[in-house]
Amino acid sequence: MATPGLTITLGLFCFAALVSRCPSVVFRPQFWAEDGQLFYQQAHALGFLHTLIIPYGGYLLTLPRLIAGLALLLPLSLAPLLFNLVALLIQCLPAVYLFSARMQNIGPLPARILLAFLYIGVPNVAKVHGNLTNAQWHLAVLCWLILLAPPPRSVRAAAFDVTALSIGAFTGPFAIFLLPVAVVVAWSRRDMWTVRRAGILCLGALVVPATVLLSARPKPPAGLGASFPAFCRILAFQVFVPVFRGVNNSAQFARHPAVLSFLSYAITAAGLAMLAYVFLHGNMEVRCFLLFAALILATALAKPLASLTEPQWVALQRQGSTHRYWLIPELAVAVAVVWLASTVANRVARAASVALICVILVVDIAYWRLPELPDLHFASYVAAFKALPVGAHIQIPVNPPGWSLELTKTKRD
Q1: What are the tens digits of pLDDT across the range 227-258?
Q2: Which of 5, 37, 99, 194 is 20 to 30 A distant from 183 in Cα terms?
Q3: C-alpha to C-alpha distances, 80 to 207, 352, 386, 388, nearest whole angstrom
Q4: Is 143 exposed, middle or buried (0-12, 13-18, 19+ CB in 10 A)?
Q5: How far apart are CA 294 and CA 9, in angstroms?
Q6: Model-level pTM?
Q7: At a CB cut-off of 8 Å and minimum separation 6, what does 265 contact?
């Protein structure tokens, strides 16, 4: 059983491990994409409270809006650091929750430590690391864990559960994907606390359709471009292969389309067969996570926003594309392998699963370091902003290159 001291120690280790994957996130902090261009810029221009009810891409984004409001209390030079530290904290919390005694029903502590390491080191997700724009995906994993946890035994634990679920329910569309899990757990356990957690998600799920209707979402002119071969390539090389190889390596087969097609079909068939077996024979917790991941993946394929210039499924196949869509499905593959290694009775299957876990661990270590973000000299723009007269504007570049935020100097600056 994990004591509070051990949980805190492991949590600090996980936070340090996340920082080590891309140190520049903390030691050379800069805004990332919507963190600067949308959340901070709008909070600075419109005021914190007003931005809380402004949807983006069809959804409310309460978590980054809250942090943008807090960032207004700090000098501009410290705002990106606050964004990045909170993003890393959100990213760390699922691992800490797994360590805690709240998750004893998931499995023994060594198995939970293994799962936490696989989560911390998941490859092929550079764009969802250390930024608030994509921290909602990690927050969704935390909310899933909270739904599976037993009722809290302290006021602090209850306050944490309610706060995290409330923010998660109104950040992005995840309340819709988490609600079926909440219903399954509530039906199984039928205790009042579990029903309350489902109620929080139900409120969030009711808000999502309204914000979608009120918010303009870009409609790519090239359409979806869906096909069965594209489906297999996406699943094979964006979901299954990176777990065991570290990256989407489909480009190396570009000159051999027959080989690429064969591998796509074979890997997809084998991967789906494994997931189907685990879903049919797994416990409620494993089934709920696979269901959660399947709903996210299905929605990502049906309503993606991967490109404004080409068919969506063409863009989805590209290496480095839309890392956010693959995080939770990749985790589902890793969870399925761990379940097989710890549960399946057949010795050959268990040995194969243990071997696959070793492969995943080696891959996670080999691809531990993520690419450092380009230095766009944020500090020099902060100095230039300070020198501006009230009412003047400045354009500040943010990562990834091509993005920027525009600030107007005010008296409070």
Answers
A1: 999 999 999 999 999 999 999 988 888 888 89
A2: 99
A3: 29, 44, 16, 20
A4: buried
A5: 33
A6: 0.94
A7: 232, 236
